[in-house]
Design goal:
With 195 residues, the protein is of the alpha+beta class. It folds into 3 domains: 4-62, OB fold (Dihydrolipoamide Acetyltransferase, E2P) (Beta Barrel); 75-127, Orthogonal Bundle (DNA polymerase, domain 1); 137-194, Helicase, Ruva Protein, domain 3, CATH 1.10.8. It has helices spanning 32-38, 65-75, 82-91, 94-102, 106-110, 117-127, 135-160, 165-178, 184-194, and strands at 4-13, 16-21, 24-30, 43-52, 57-62. The longest helix has 26 residues, at 135-160.
Length: 195
C-alpha cells in the first residue's frame, strides 16, 4: 500500500490535486483542509489512502497523518463512504471533528451535506472511544469545548436574526480558530461584519 506521495503540484483545485512524480501525474482527491494547506505551494507531500474498487482505483490525499487517520476511522463506520468522509473533513477541521465526536455533538455533524440523523449518531457511537486527543488538543480540550458551546450559542443567535445556518457556522468556526476566547456577543459582532 502507498503511504505518501511527494512531488510537484501540476494542477490544484478544491476537490483534487495532480502531483507529478518522475514523469507520472497522480490524481488525488483532497479535502478543503488539505487544499488550503497546498494553496500557496509548488511541491507537496500527501499521506494517501488507496481505494480499490471494481470500477476504479482512487487516491485520497491528506496534508497530515492525523487527517488521514480520521478519514480511515470515518470510512470504517457503516454507511460512510470515502466521498462522505472527505465531505466531513472539508466541513470541519481535524481538531473540530475530534471535539465534535468526543463531545457527542451529533447536531453539528447533521449540518454537513449528506449526513442524516442516523449517520451522525452512528459516527459518534462508533468513534467516540476511538478518538485519541493529541497533546496539542489535550491541553486545549477544555478551551475548545467552552469555545464550542459559545460558538453554538452564537450560531443560534445568528439564525434567529435570519442568517443561513451553514454560512453562520462557517463564519463562527473561523472566528473560533482565530479568537477561541471570544464571548458570544463578540462572536456575533464579528460574524455580522463577515456575513
Amino acid at each position: 500500500m502507498l503511504d505518501f506521495i511527494k512531488g510537484e503540484i501540476a494542477e490544484l483545485n478544491p476537490a483534487s490535486v495532480v502531483l507529478e512524480v518522475a514523469g507520472l501525474g497522480y490524481a488525488i482527491h483532497i479535502s478543503l483542509n488539505t487544499y488550503s494547506v497546498l494553496a500557496e505551494k509548488k511541491e507537496a507531500k500527501l499521506y494517501v489512502y488507496e481505494a480499490i474498487r471494481e470500477d476504479a482505483h482512487l487516491l485520497f490525499g491528506f496534508s497530515e497523518k492525523r487527517e488521514r487517520n480520521l478519514f480511515l476511522l470515518l470510512i470504517s463506520v457503516s454507511g460512510v463512504g470515502a466521498n462522505t468522509a472527505r465531505m466531513i473533513l472539508s466541513s470541519l477541521s481535524v481538531s473540530e471533528l475530534e471535539t465534535v465526536i468526543s463531545s457527542g455533538n451529533s447536531n453539528m455533524l447533521k449540518t454537513i451535506k449528506g449526513i442524516g440523523a442516523k449517520t451522525a449518531e452512528r459516527i459518534i457511537i462508533d468513534l467516540k472511544d476511538k478518538i485519541k486527543f493529541s497533546d496539542e488538543i489535550g491541553s486545549g480540550e477544555k478551551i475548545m469545548s467552552i469555545a464550542n458551546e459559545v460558538a453554538n450559542e452564537a450560531v443560534s443567535a445568528l439564525m434567529m436574526l435570519g442568517f443561513n445556518q451553514v454560512a453562520s457556522q462557517k463564519v463562527i468556526s473561523k472566528i473560533v480558530k482565530e479568537k477561541p476566547m471570544s464571548t458570544v456577543e463578540e462572536m456575533i459582532k464579528m460574524a455580522l461584519k463577515m456575513l
